[in-house]
Amino acid sequence: PFAEFVVSLLWHTKLQSEVALSTTEAEYIALSQSMRDMIPSRELLREVSQALKYPIPDSSKAISTIFEDNNGALELAKCPRMRPRTKHIAIKYHHFREQITSGKIKVEGIDTNDQIADIFTKPLVRTKFEALRKMLLGW
Questions:
Q1: What is the pTM of this model?
Q2: How do residues 4-24 score in pLDDT, each as one tens digit?
Q3: How far apart are CA 6 and CA 57, in angstroms?
Q4: Are 32 and 96 spatial neighbours (Cβ–Cβ below 8 Å)?
């Protein structure tokens, strides 16, 4: 085998097409859009590995992880219960819950200070930018 694991990074920025009523809803919509990109990418990697006759780990080991720094969105993704403050979120954003339940995709919490993606999406003070740059580059 060439590698024990594969690391794939998907990133893009886009203005949300809907107005969110809370930061939890905005983060959950972004999480849903990330999953919409990740699920076909997982399938593509599986098909390429089969075409190249490169064995992939069994499904219990082939887990993709998405990091989320909003506790409300994290809770909503992991525990799919309707709550009074989130019941208005459109059903189209819940499509990925089966992937989480089956264990193919894992959503993990991450402290806001450790969210490396912020370097691409937010204006940062110099010290914060330099700290995230070091984390991104592995310095």
A1: 0.68
A2: 455 566 666 666 677 777 888
A3: 10
A4: yes
